[in-house]
């Protein structure tokens, strides 16, 4: 029969200690994730893409201002297309393949042009949602 020597006992104790340290670490990290979710819940308009009721004023104007109006406004807008008003954005969509340009699809040059950041997937979804809802002003 093997009787536990002091050495063996030491080994057992240190292994137990290591094991509980790892278990504690795992428990701590899972708590950390729980807390993160509680602290930063998904809020509409921040982490998720809100396509429920897009309007020109609240949804489309900011997209145009951040990505398009710098070139598409003023006395000689690029491509001869002004995009600084709702009526002109409608003209772009109906008569100038605006959606093909922002997707860089069907052979139309990508807008914003190459080298500049493209519209986000959320921007595109909101544009489509706005068009489907008959392009409301507000
Ligand atoms: C850096 C300047 C610049 C930015 C920013 C820009 N464009 Fe353009 N855009 C141009 C130029 C230059 C043309 C004309 C040449 C071409 O079609 O590639 C053009 C052409 C277009 C046309 C075609 C007009 C026509 O009748 O042929 C559309 C539609 C358009 N842009 C939409 C947009 C939209 C929407 C954005 C924002 C998402 C945007 N553009 C951002 C420079 C820009």
Notes on the structure:
The protein is mainly α and 138 residues long. It folds into 2 domains: 1-41; 56-132, no CATH class. Helices cover 54% and strands 0% of the residues. The protein contains 5 helices and no strands. The protein has helices at 6-39, 56-67, 86-95, 98-103, 121-132. Helix 2 (56-67) crosses helix 5 (121-132). The termini are far apart. The mean pLDDT is 87. Heme C binds at residues 67-68, 70-72, 78-79, 81, 83, 92, 96-98, 101-102, 109, 111-113, 116, 119.
Radius of gyration in whole Å, from Cα?
Answer: 29 Å
Overall residue-averaged pLDDT value: 87
The major β-sheet equals: none
Indicate the low-confidence ranges by residue numbers: none
Compute the number of structural domains.
Answer: 2
Task: Give helix % range.
Answer: 40-55%
The total beta strand count reads: 0
Bound molecules: heme C
Count of helical segments? Answer: 5
Category from helices, strands and their pairing: mainly alpha
- What distance lies between the first and last C-alpha atoms, to the nearest angstrom? 87 Å
**Helix-strand pattern:** HHHHH
Strand content: under 5%
Rough outline:
rod-shaped
Question: How would you summarize what this structure contains?
Answer:
With 138 residues, the chain is mainly α.
Notable traits:
single chain; 138 residues; mainly alpha; 2 domains; 5 helices; binds heme C
Layout of helices and strands, plus pairs?
Elements: H1 6-39, H2 56-67, H3 86-95, H4 98-103, H5 121-132
Helix pairs in contact: 2-5
The structure holds heme C (HEC).
């Amino acid at each position: 029969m093997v009787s536990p020597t002091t050495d063996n006992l030491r080994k057992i104790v240190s292994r137990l200690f290591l094991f509980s340290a790892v278990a504690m670490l795992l428990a701590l990290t899972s708590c950390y994730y729980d807390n993160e979710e509680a602290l930063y819940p998904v809020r509409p308009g921040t982490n998720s893409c809100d396509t429920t009721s897009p309007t020109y004023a609240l949804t489309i104007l900011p997209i145009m201002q951040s990505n398009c109006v710098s070139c598409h406004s003023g006395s000689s807008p690029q491509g001869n297309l002004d995009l600084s008003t709702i009526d002109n954005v409608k003209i772009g969509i109906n008569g100038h393949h605006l959606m093909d340009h922002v997707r860089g699809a069907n052979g139309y040059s990508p807008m914003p042009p190459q080298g500049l950041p493209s519209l986000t997937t959320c921007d595109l979804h909101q544009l489509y949602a706005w068009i489907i809802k008959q392009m409301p002003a507000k």
